[in-house]
């Protein structure tokens, strides 16, 4: 994909692999919309990009633990930019961020489900008309090989909670949504794919889990960039990748009935109608 004049929005892009992707895209002239909660981190990234001769990114501050914050973020992006070529849903929290106990979002939902999955679900729905108007365009959902089937009797994991299970459930939900959204957008010129960028990258999330990194954000960034702007991915949709290669997700991702239950629940939780 030629990047001159392209607008690319990346959530969770002031740290970790999102930061790496933002810097790479800005370096080659894309208009990059970065998002995070910390203005200082955003300014540091912007300064580094400027020193390297890249195009200055545009920062949007928002807390994705709030659905009202998600809506405000989408509204700001839509108000400021007449086109949107790529949306990379990358923001997320790991299994141990904030401690091992169960936490909830500002809306009362299990925190990892809310931030890692539901925020991206809502953003994609709100941004979809602009992405369709800018087609050919792409949505990339940054998921994980760590996946746990959703227990629809206890989606918020009020019983037997563990951060690892919550994280893995949220990542499988992203992949299930990817498959459904790709089907909804078939023929629109908007493609949707998900990926596991790399295993245990050197990120704040991994370090918070007490795990020794085994790969780099540069490796993960390459995989994300492949789906976001790679020529060989044009037209491919509804797929899950591990790194640079297509892979199989947890079997529940391919269960149409389970995806339907998740879609109906997600629309309800996000305050969207079935036609949104």
Care to describe what's here?
Strand 1, helix 1 (16-27) and strand 2 (31-36) form a beta-alpha-beta unit. Strands 3-2-1-4-5-6-7-8 form an eight-stranded mixed β-sheet, with helices on both faces. It has helices at residues 16-27, 39-51, 67-80, 111-133, 163-184, 204-208, 217-229, 256-270; strands at residues 7-10, 31-36, 58-61, 86-89, 137-142, 190-196, 239-242, 245-247. The protein is globular, with a radius of gyration of 17 Å. It is built from eight helices and eight strands. The chain has 276 residues and is of the alpha/beta class. The longest helix is centred in the middle third of the chain and has 23 residues, at 111-133. Helix 1 (16-27) crosses helix 7 (217-229), helix 4 (111-133) runs parallel beside helix 5 and helix 4 crosses helix 8. The model has no long low-confidence stretch (mean pLDDT 95). The chain has a single domain (7-270), classed as Rossmann fold (3-Layer(aba) Sandwich), CATH 3.40.50.
Keywords:
8 strands; 276 residues; Rossmann fold; alpha/beta
Compact overview of the structure:
This protein is of the alpha/beta class and 276 residues long. The protein has helices at 16-27, 39-51, 67-80, 111-133, 163-184, 204-208, 217-229, 256-270, and strands spanning 7-10, 31-36, 58-61, 86-89, 137-142, 190-196, 239-242, 245-247.
Strands of the largest sheet, in order across it? 3-2-1-4-5-6-7-8
CATH superfamily caption = NAD(P)-binding Rossmann-like Domain
Shape: globular
Q: Alpha-carbon distance between the termini?
A: 29 Å
Overall mean confidence score, pLDDT: 95
CATH structural fold name: Rossmann fold
The total strand number stands at 8
Q: Provide the CATH architecture.
A: 3-Layer(aba) Sandwich
């Amino acid at each position: 994909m030629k990047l001159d004049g392209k607008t690319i929005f990346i959530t969770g892009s002031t740290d970790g692999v999102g930061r790496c992707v933002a810097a790479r895209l800005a370096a080659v002239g894309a208009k990059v919309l970065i998002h995070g909660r910390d203005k200082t981190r955003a300014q540091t990234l912007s300064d580094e990009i400027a020193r390297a001769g890249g195009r200055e990114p545009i920062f949007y501050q928002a807390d994705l633990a709030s659905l009202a914050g998600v809506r405000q973020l989408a509204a700001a992006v839509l108000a400021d930019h007449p086109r949107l070529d790529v949306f990379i849903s990358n923001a997320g929290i790991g299994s141990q961020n904030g401690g091992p106990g169960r936490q909830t979002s500002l809306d009362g939902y299990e925190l990892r489900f809310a931030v890692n999955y539901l925020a991206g679900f809502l953003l994609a729905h709100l941004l979809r008309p602009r992405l369709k108007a800018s087609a050919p365009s792409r949505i990339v959902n940054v998921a994980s090989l760590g996946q746990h089937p959703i227990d629809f009797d206890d989606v918020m994991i009020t019983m037997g909670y563990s951060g690892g299970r919550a994280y893995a459930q949220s990542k499988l939900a992203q992949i299930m949504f990817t498959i459904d959204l790709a089907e909804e957008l078939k023929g629109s010129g908007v493609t949707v794919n998900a990926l596991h960028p790399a295993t245990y990258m050197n990120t704040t999330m991994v370090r918070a889990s007490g795990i020794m990194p085994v790969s780099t954000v540069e490796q993960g960034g390459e995989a994300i960039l492949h789906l976001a702007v790679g020529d060989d991915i044009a037209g491919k949709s509804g797929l899950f990748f591990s790194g640079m290669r297509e892979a199989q997700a947890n079997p529940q991702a391919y269960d149409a009935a389970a995806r339907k239950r998740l879609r109906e629940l997600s629309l309800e939780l996000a305050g969207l109608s079935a036609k949104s």
